[in-house]
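Worked example 2:
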Amino acid sequence: MKILIMGFGKIKFMPYLNFYLDNIDKEKHEVHLLYWNRDLKHEDTSHLDGITLHEFRRLQEDDVPKGEKLGSFAEYRRFALGVLKGEGFDFVIIMHSLTGIVVEDYIVRHFRDRFVFDFRDVTFENILPFKVAVGSLVRNSALTFVSSDIFRIYLPQEKNNILTIHNTSVKEADFTGSQKQKGKIRIGFWGFIRDKRLNERVISCLGDDSRFELHFYGREQDVALGLKAFVQERGFQNIFFHGEYAPEEKKSIIENTDLIHNIYDDKGAMLAVGNKYYDGVYYGKPQLCMEGSFMSVLCKGRGTGFSCNPYKEGFADKIYELYNQLDYEQLKRNCAGVVAEVSAQQERNAAVLTEVLAKKEVVG
């Protein structure tokens, strides 16, 4: 079969792509990948040998209101439709809800029951037309994956082809660098730096507190630059920004982190299960999650992290106390249990995906 995988960002920012690349037999299937180069910088694609690439190039910063991105979305749609119409695909894998929404009409009309819908983010699901389009994609898909169980509240309840998928391709834990450190507690954030108000609050709570260091790793767009200016204005000496990092550098970043900053307060992130959650359990590092978030429920329930709220008084004292009371051996046992469950679920997902593709190949 000829299969198109559709993404909505740069390849290096789509780690969940690996699940599909690892589980599609590229000897049997011709695989194409459509992705969006949003910063117009060169990207190393040497690891994608044998895969036909379709690069959509348009500059689009992430930390701007979604309404200001509509022009880019429209251009992405035109490009994607050109690829879909011109290549004669047998099967499509849609990664991210927005990817599917911009081509929903064409996909449902021409690929009914011949596509996978990978639902990984909550955006405009409370807006009726968006909700209807998401429902249409789920109902007409051969298989739908959700990256957070709580996302199911936005999806048609009658469908039985919805499985939970995880934002990771790692199969075994690595606890070699997992141990309690003496001295300053190094709190680390990595990924897209956003949530200006929240992070200003976190910085204010920890700035110049000799018990902590706070490190940010990630692309520095408007929010990150504003946070750096905020730190400089207040003269904080224990807050550090390290800029963009390569994927292969992440393990070293994690090993040099004592406590993961996994705190968000926007609606989508409060419901999501993000990459840093898996980084924590795979490397045996405790994480801080926002009080009331789905990740805080997971961490508290499994003993892999802490629930906190930087807007409440005593935030710094609370996390200092939590970290110093932590039983690291118990943490590693708890994390190992989560890793085993996640690996088993991913194996099941891979088997189902293989079965779906095999059935469509026979029908085709």
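Residues 328-363 form the longest helix (36 residues). The chain has a mean pLDDT of 92.
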